[in-house]
Amino acid sequence: MRMAVDLHDTVEQALTGVSYQLVVSEALHETEPQRSMRHLDLAKQLLVQSREEVRRSVWNLRAQSLNGRNLAEVLRDVAAGLSTRNPVLTRVTVNGEERDLPDFIAGHLLLLAQESMTNAIKHAKPENLHIGLEFDDNSVELSIHDDGAGFDPSHAPGLAEGHLGLQGMRERMKRLGGAVNVESSPGRGTTIRARVPLPK
Predict the structure, then answer these.
(1) Which residues touch 109 (CB under 8 Å, ≥6 apart)?
(2) How many CB atoms lie within 10 A of CB 142?
(3) Higher-confidence residue: 48 or 95?
(4) What is the pLDDT of residue 20?
(5) Half-sphere exposure of 151 toward its Cβ, with a 13 Å CA cutoff?
(6) How would you class 87 by CB atoms within 10 Å of its CB: exposed for 0-12, middle for 13-18, buried for 19 or more?
(7) What is the mean pLDDT of residues 153-170?
(8) End-to-end CA distance of the chain
(9) In the chain, count of helices (H) and strands (E)?
(10) What does the radius of gyration of the chain's CA atoms come to, in whole angstroms?
(11) pLDDT at position 62, please?
């Protein structure tokens, strides 16, 4: 089930984006060849991203079970690894009564956290990253906050620009019956919150 969702969230989106780029490229081929080539390049970029996402999904398939550990423990290990390899301070906090999560939920929250942290370090250059888990009786919320460059979410690049990005996160959480909220503005950092309902 995890693999099926990953394939939907990556390959299907990428192929949709590739199809869009190729249609536009074909339409511009005769009249605007330079713009046509630009859309071909974006199609290639999407295919490269998709290949890497599939490779990562396969590589992480076993890791998504967390190997008997809880999500907070794994997040602390991931955050510590990022601090070792990058000039960023990380911390992980847990609020509420921590519960064992089904692998399906924990695995996808872990992948979302990894993607969010990696994107923050790559694009926002933050000094600090805070990863939070908050539990209540009915749901769990994962938050990733960075104090980096920030951006305007309403103008975030999407499939048309050759990126899977935030739409992929939203699709991933939608499959879990949850939702993602992005709070950011230029110069004021970014907070990504993913809330998922817990099984009764």
Answers:
(1) 71, 101, 140, 142, 194, 196
(2) 25
(3) 95
(4) 84
(5) 14
(6) exposed
(7) 67
(8) 20
(9) 6, 5
(10) 18
(11) 46
Q: Which pTM was predicted?
A: 0.69
Checking DSSP bridges between strand 139-146 and strand 190-197, what pairing results, if any? antiparallel
For residue 157, give the nearest of 128, 102, 119, 121 by alpha carbon. Answer: 119
The token duo for 199 is 């099984």
For 83-131, write each residue's pLDDT tens digit.
888 899 999 999 999 888 888 888 889 888 988 998 898 889 999 999 9
Query: Which single residue is written with the structure tokens 């590739």?
Result: 18
E strand intervals along the chain: 89-95, 128-135, 139-146, 179-184, 190-197
Q: Which of 150, 138, 134, 144 is nearest to 177 (CA)?
A: 138
Give me the residues paired with residue 145 across strands: 130, 191
Instruction: Return phi, psi of residue 188, to 5°.
Output: -125, 20
Beta-sheet pairing, 128-135 with 179-184 = unpaired
